[in-house]
Amino acid sequence: MRRLLRTPAGLVGTTLVAALLVLAVVAPWIWGSDATRINPAQIGQGSSAAHLLGTDALGRDLLARTLVATRLTLGLAALATGIGTAAGIVLGALPSLLPRGWGRCVVAAVDILVAFPALLLAMFTAVVTGLGGRGAVLGIGVALAPTFARLTHTLTASVAGSDYIAAARMLRVPRHRVLTRHVLPNIAEPLILNLAQSMGAALLGLSAMSFLGMGVQAPSYDWGRLLNDAFGHVYVTPSVVVAPAVAVTLAGLGFMLLGDAFAAAAARTIDPVGDAVLPDLPKAAAPADPDAVLEIRDLTVAFPGGVTPVRQVSLTVRPGEIVGVVGESGSGKSMTAAAIGDIVPHPGLVGSSRSRLCGVDLDTLTPAARRKLLGSCLAMVFQDPTSSLNPALRVGGQLAEVATLHAGATRAQARARAVERLDRVHIKHPEHVIRQYPHELSGGMRQRAVIAMGLMGTPRLIIADEPTTALDVTVQREVLRVLREVVDESAAGALFISHDIAVVGELCDRVAVMYAGRVVEELPAADLAADARHPYTRALIGSLPDMATDRSAPLTTIPGRQPAPGDVPTGCAFADRCALTTARCATRPRLVRDGQHAVACWEVS
Ligand SMILES: Nc1ncnc2c1ncn2[C@@H]1O[C@H](COP(=O)(O)OP(=O)(O)OP(=O)(O)O)[C@@H](O)[C@H]1O
């Protein structure tokens, strides 16, 4: 509610609608007798002290009649909206319940009805069902239904492709149950938002029909009927149309503004209450590493509510080096990558004491210069290659776009480079593949195509965020080999994010182990097996099965759970799960560096 009142539109809309609702309840009690009292001495009068907005053809007070008509007008509009909404949702949902052919017929019928002028449709229905309030309500309900049906159908189609719907279908959940349990609850919000605006449209439509003599009939009266009655006197006493006309306008405006405010408030509900707060991060005093393609110090990401998924993470990546970032799900690996790539979702805040990419201090750049540097210097490869490639564009077109946009290449040059880059990531027949769409490629080919896309420029840093998680083991190997080759040949640096410590150990040169948003150990990958010291790193290595593992015994697991990013203790975050915990662990151990090896643990550093 507070969100609704925050914007001028919301405030005006809510006030108008609230006032109308109060009037609808109290007006007939307060002004009911004034509205019906016939006064032959005051017929068709203009504005006067006794009758502020004049009288009608029977001398009844027009202001009182307008106020009293609020109840019937709103009641009929609500009824018409209810009919339109219910009929629309059923019509819109039918195509997903009926066999395909019948479903298409319903969609075609809805399309035709949407194209038909709504008021004409309402009038036609009203004539068929009988003139009067009932016919008008049915008419407006029928006129509203196609828009609701189209909206429901579009929203249903948008969630129909979701994995949870596919899973429900696989489980042979009946269609009507899929619809009511899995589809409708997920599209309810936009439908409800549309309701307030539809109410405004219904109110205007009903008033128009009553004004034309096709709606409410005497002796009943709504605002449209009052306008109809007053219209005969408008040339003699113009003030007689003011009250109903103003009422219709204000009510229509109120519901429309309220609908808009609802939509705006709903869009903002994804923002948690409050602002994110970053800790104080003074500029790093130590000299910058001149060779590093990436140097970040104290990188921190904060969300509102004290959620800090990345806490003072420091990483350096040098040319030709692959640095692995490993840790359990939720340890902040992807958020670290997002912070480096400047793609932390709103309302997250990113801070650091140093942030250098390709030798340039990112904090000294304007947002435009920063975007340009990231666009040319950084390539990102995500876990799901399907969502990284646009399904509507051919692979070659997408690759070429990078070269034409960032390097100003001509179409022919960009195409030649796309073929060359696809060849470089070992995609066979690249001339053929550039003409294919992403869905025509296998998962491994798609991921290699994404790497090739990253190589269309000349990236100095490649961030690969779990690039092989969605691939099977053999394809995974191919993709990792390609990544290694690319780094070796181009002397770019790479940050390789994975939860698989075995893969990281094999592919990377150095490894940073993250736990609860912090780096708890950093060491050369070659030393992982023999020299990892932090109990968490040791536990990760210990939970890996190998050929010597006893298959009859359960695999080693790490007891307990990693703390949530909003609930990290002030001491060592791993203490609850650690066998070496002592009283000292109530204070957080700092990352202590000894040559190439750094570890944050009181007991082993
Ligand atoms: N938009 C967001 N708002 C608030 N918190 C978020 C948001 N996105 C992620 N987080 C929090 O950040 C934490 C770290 O997420 P992140 O994706 O970096 O983990 P991860 O280590 O990459 O895990 P995974 O291996 O599962 O991808 C999560 O526990 C999550 O609670």
Care to describe what's here?
This protein has 605 residues and is α/β, with parallel strands linked by helices. It has 2 domains: 4-268, MetI-like (MetI-like fold); 294-381 and 460-599, P-loop containing nucleotide triphosphate hydrolases (Rossmann fold, 3-Layer(aba) Sandwich). It contains 20 helices and 13 strands. The strands form 2 sheets. The chain has an 8-stranded mixed beta sheet with strand order 7-8-9-3-10-11-13-12, with helices on both faces. Strands 1, 2, 4, 5 and 6 form a 5-stranded antiparallel beta sheet that branches. Strand 8, helix 17 and strand 9 (493-498) form a beta-alpha-beta unit. It is elongated and about 105 Å long. It starts with 7 loop residues before the first helix and ends in a 6-residue tail after the last strand.
What's a quick, concise take on this entry?
The protein is an alpha/beta fold. Helices cover 50% and strands 11% of the residues. The protein has helices at 8-36, 62-97, 100-115, 118-129, 133-160, 163-170, 175-211, 223-231, 242-268, 333-340, 367-377, 385-388, 395-406, 411-424, 430-433, 443-454, 473-490, 501-507, 528-531, 535-542; strands at residues 294-303, 307-317, 322-326, 349-351, 354-357, 360-361, 378-381, 461-465, 493-498, 510-515, 518-524, 592-594, 597-599.
